[in-house]
Every structure is written in C-alpha cells, then in structure tokens.
Design brief:
322 residues; 11 strands
Amino acid sequence: MLSRIAGLAVILVAAAIPAQAQDFPTRPIRVVIAFPPGGPTDFVGRLIADKLKDILPQPVLIENKPGANGAIGADFVAKAEPDGHTLFLSTVGAIAITPHMRDNLPYNTLRDFAPVTLVVRNTTVAVVRSDHPAKTAQEFVAVAKQKNGALPFASTGVGSTTHLAVEMWATAAGFKFLHVPYRGAAPALTDILGGQVEGFFGDVPVLMPQIAAGKVRALAAASSERNPMLPNVPTLTEAGYQNTASGNWYGLLAPAKTPQAIIAKLNSAVVAAVNDPVTKDKLIKSGAIPVADTPGQFGQFLKEEFDRWGKVVRERGIKEPS
C-alpha cells in the first residue's frame, strides 16, 4: 500500500509541473536589471518586456537594482521564489566576472541560476575624443608608450568588461595606462569629451550617438568580428593584437529549481520577442546583436564565459576595491 501511495505521489507531482507551466504566468513578471534606468541593459530589457506583453498573458515589469557590480540584483533573484515570476537580465559582469573578484558573494552563479536564453551580444569598442592625435589602435599604443603609464584610460568600474578589455589590450600591445574607473558609461563619456581621460572602452549602444555625432572616434573593437553598425572599425585582432576578444552580453536567468517546463515557456516567449521584426530591427540599430538561443546553449556558453573570465581575473590579479 505504501509503495502504491508513493508511486501515486510521484505521478501527481509529475503531472502538476506541466499544469503549472500551462497556467504560467499567474501574475506580473519582474525582470531585475542591476543598473540604473537609461543604460543599454535597461534599454534592451524594456524593449523585450514591451514585446512580451503581446505574447504572455501578464505584464512584464522592469525593476532596477543597481550596485556592487551587479551583485545586489543577482543576489535578489538568486533568493527569489523559483516560479518564473522573478528573472534576472544580467550582463557578463555580475555572473561571470564579479564572482572571481570577491570571496564573499552571497550567490553562486552555476548553482543558483537557471539559464533561460542569451538575449544579445554587445561589441566593446575603444574610443577617443575626435580631436585626439591617435586615429588608429596602433597610433594610440604609440601615444600610450610615450606616456609610460601616465595615460588615463576610463572604464565603467573595476572588473567591468570595459576594464578587462583595456587590460587585455595593454598586455597584448605592451603598454601601461592609468586606470580611471567610473560608476557607469555616462560619466566616463563625459570625461572623454572633456579631455580628463584619453581612452574608453564602451558597448556600441552607448557609444553610437557620440560616434554618429562625430564627438568620439572609434579605434578598434575588442571582439572576434566587426560590429554590423560599425563595419569600418577593425577588431583589435585585425590591428595585430592577439587574445583581445572581449565583448559584453546580456542573458536572462531564473532562480535555480525553476521548473523546466516554465523555463521552456519563458524561453519560447523571449525568443519570439527578440525575433519579432520590429524589435530585432531596433536592437540591431542600437548596435546590439540579437541572439536568442536555447537554455542548454546559454548554459554551456555561461560556463565557458565563467571559466574564461576567471582566468583573466586571476592572471591580472584584479580584486574588487574594499
């Protein structure tokens, strides 16, 4: 009798999961973004959320939780109820870089999150002010070598992709620089334009308005291929600097233990939103590269990125400032 009851319980649980997914979502979905409103991650998140309202029977709301290189937002989602109603649209930083810079993170990337889909890739590009003497990556390296470590180069924070991109370039090209970390791209761009710093790596969606206006000059992309919106800007590899492919990306994650049937439903909805012609066109024109893959593909990619950036952080001895 006990064995029959146990077997019946297993059957009922197995049957309940698809039913739970069929009813999902039962209330508004929150997508947490670990940056303030107005940035590129926020732009992508709101664009996707706006399209999802036509696909899912509940609204999708953006909730900004900035701070601690993305760790505040990541920890919030990691501890949320694993029912698919709280999600994390993360950049590479919070889940693949920050964990290697801190010993006391309250979450574990590979244990506490369930991948839903990689949403977009973003090319990271080195820029200078339009009147800077360097017109190419090679000319910038020559200027940096002349200044022997005194050249101020901006980033969006210690351990950010923009910081690690210049570290990788400096190693490959053999120059030193003065690292000037900022709290985001906006103040870094302000100081580039004001002449307080000489170089900056930024995501294409952030830089496109300034490039189009002729206020900054793009020197090279820290990526494996050229960005479609900047076809005349070579990669650092093309410029002769090896092992410099960096680049940012935004991926959607749920708390671990979220039922796979719900993950599958979320994936289907987000893939449809990203591939919507109007949404896709807006993403491409912003400089982002739409992806939208499977949970399995994103999970494998996340593991590879986690290991890759861990190696970079360890080799350069980068630690989050106390």
